[in-house]
Specification:
This protein is α/β, with parallel strands linked by helices. It has helices at residues 13-22, 36-42, 59-64, 84-89, 102-117, 120-129, 156-167, 182-185, 194-199, 220-223, 243-251, 271-274, 290-310; strands spanning 4-7, 24-26, 48-51, 71-74, 93-95, 148-152, 171-175, 189-190, 203-206, 230-234, 255-260, 279-281. The chain binds glyoxylic acid.
Length: 318
């Protein structure tokens, strides 16, 4: 008999077809964002859940899941939406989708850097209002070539971004839990602490995972470490930023511009960002290319299948 799997959000057609071949799949054809209660109800009788970052699967939810659930396969590299320890206690394997989204996310990180440095949001707004004219000092921005890029979190995405940014002539600095090998560093300079990294970051790219340690790592105090007129970008998770402090820093021009793809409590977004002309903001598009989303869902399907068939998985995170 086919295994029963709950797929919490709509996937691309080819991925859903594959899921249907493999399993008795409960699809979400209307792509509704399920409440915690609905997720618990729909998971009754299922062997696994293919979840997305839009579901908060906390301890309470995990405890209420039926005992038939063996695996939660997250359709994302980040898994901060799932209480992986609570899952472990209940013998539920949690998996993620690393690697396949590295290049797409690094490209969005580059777009945020370019958009924030070159005032793209303001430019687009002028063009749409048809009220601009060229002049020598119109929308003067900051040049990437020759400026210093600080990368917070030099994992796969941070390293891919470093490669791209070097092509733009940026000097790369980074902070990571551990120093990389010379080969992986490719000339980037390691910093022992945040203050040291931030103080040389003309542009900062946040690429680290959301953990208790990185929560609100950008705050009133750490913003003071940056050179005046620095640019802050984030492709990781909104949890890393104290939004009130960053908006204030934008208002008082300590920070020149920001580029954000992720937000605390998204899809809600701090009102302060909406009112700032120097905020280049995107709706969590990091992995949003057809190839990447297809590969991610394929990997999430493989992960889930592997756990159901073998009890193991290389992409297990708990
Ligand atoms: C996207 O944000 C992911 O974690 O995959």
């Amino acid at each position: 008999m086919k295994k029963k799997v709950l797929i919490t959000r709509k996937l691309l057609r080819s991925n859903e077809d594959r899921a249907n071949e493999l399993w008795d799949a409960k699809l979400n054809l209307n792509d509704e964002v399920y409440s915690q209660q609905k997720l618990i109800e729909l998971s009754q009788g299922c062997d696994g859940i293919l979840s997305s970052l839009t579901e908060k699967i906390d301890e309470k939810v995990i405890k209420s899941l039926p005992s038939t659930i063996k695996v939660i396969s997250n359709f994302a590299v980040g898994f901060g939406n799932i209480d992986i320890e609570a899952a472990k206690k209940k013998n539920i394997v949690v998996t993620n989708t690393p690697d396949v989204l590295t290049d797409a996310t690094a490209e969005i990180a580059m777009l945020l850097i370019l958009g924030a440095c070159r005032r793209a949001a303001e430019g687009i707004s002028y063009v749409k209002k048809e009220n601009w004219k060229w002049s020598a000092d119109f929308l003067i921005g900051k040049q990437l070539n020759g400026s210093r890029l600080g990368i917070l979190g030099m994992g796969r995405i941070g390293q891919a971004l470093a490669k791209l940014a070097k092509v733009f002539g940026m000097e790369i600095h980074y902070r990571n839990r551990s120093k990389l090998s010379k080969e992986k560093e490719m000339g980037a300079k390691y910093h022992e602490n945040l203050q040291s990294l931030f103080s040389v970051s003309d542009v900062l790219a946040i690429c680290c995972p959301a953990t208790n340690e990185t929560k609100n790592i950008i705050n009133k105090e750490t913003l003071e470490y940056f050179p005046t007129g620095a640019i802050i970008t984030n492709v990781a998770r909104g949890d890393m930023i104290d939004d009130d402090a960053l908006v204030q820093a934008l208002v008082n021009r300590k920070i020149y511009a920001i580029g954000l793809d992720v937000y605390k409590g998204e899809p809600k977004i701090h009102n302060g960002y909406l009112n700032q002309p120097n905020a280049f903001i995107l709706p969590h598009l990091g992995s949003a290319t057809k190839k990447t989303r297809t590969d991610m869902a394929d990997l999430a399907i493989n992960n889930l299948n592997e756990v159901l068939n073998t009890g193991k998985c290389t992409n297990r995170v708990n």
